[in-house]
């Protein structure tokens, strides 16, 4: 089974067991996260509905990319600036595709508020 997930403004095609490098996400190595923005899911050529579908992943490491040198110069003005930038990344291992988002907590809150609203 595969899924297309969106994180960090980019889209990734993932399957169980895949490792992907995404923009930095909060969390430490070894912790698990869920990616809730699933755009497409399927198996082979069969597509499945993505309502409430989530992708579970484990954070393998927090890393940095190679340094990119930014050099600015204006000729004949003795103006030179050199900066370096290292983008932060998170390396994820996809553990499962197909979990459902938990909406029961929201439903319980709505049920709990309705009697109180009726009394007021």
Description:
This protein has one domain. Helices cover 13% and strands 57% of the residues. It has one helix and ten strands. The protein has one helix at residues 104-119, and strands spanning 2-7, 10-15, 19-23, 32-35, 38-43, 46-48, 53-64, 68-74, 79-85, 88-100. It has a four-stranded antiparallel beta sheet with strand order 2-1-5-6, with no helix packed on it. The protein has a four-stranded antiparallel beta sheet with strand order 3-10-7-4, with no helix packed on it. The longest helix has 16 residues, at 104-119. The model has no long low-confidence stretch (mean pLDDT 88).
- Write out the strand line-up for the largest beta sheet, numbering strands in chain order: 2-1-5-6
Fraction of residues in helices?
10-25%
Secondary-structure class: mainly beta
Mean pLDDT across the residues is 88
Count up the helices: 1
Shape, please?
A: elongated
Task: Work out the strand percent.
Answer: over 45%
Descriptors:
four-stranded antiparallel beta sheet; 120 residues; 13% helix; mainly beta
Question: How is the secondary structure organized here?
Answer:
Layout (H helix, E strand, L loop, with lengths): L1 E6 L2 E6 L3 E5 L8 E4 L2 E6 L2 E3 L4 E12 L3 E7 L4 E7 L2 E13 L3 H16 L1
Antiparallel strand pairs: 1-2, 1-5, 3-10, 4-7, 5-6, 7-10, 8-9
Could you give a short description of this structure?
With 120 residues, the protein is mainly β. 13% of the residues lie in helices and 57% in strands.
């Amino acid at each position: 089974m595969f899924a297309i997930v969106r994180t960090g403004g980019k889209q990734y095609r993932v399957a169980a067991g895949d490792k992907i490098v995404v923009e930095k996400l909060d969390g430490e190595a070894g912790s698990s996260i869920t990616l809730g923005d699933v755009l497409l899911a399927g198996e082979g050529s069969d597509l499945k509905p993505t309502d409430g579908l989530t992708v579970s992943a484990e954070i393998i490491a927090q890393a940095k990319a190679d340094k990119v040198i930014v050099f600015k110069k204006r000729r004949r003005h003795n103006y030179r600036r050199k900066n370096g930038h290292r983008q932060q990344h998170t390396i994820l291992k996809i553990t499962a595709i197909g979990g459902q988002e938990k909406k029961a907590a929201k439903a319980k809150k709505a049920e709990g508020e309705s009697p109180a609203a009726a009394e007021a």
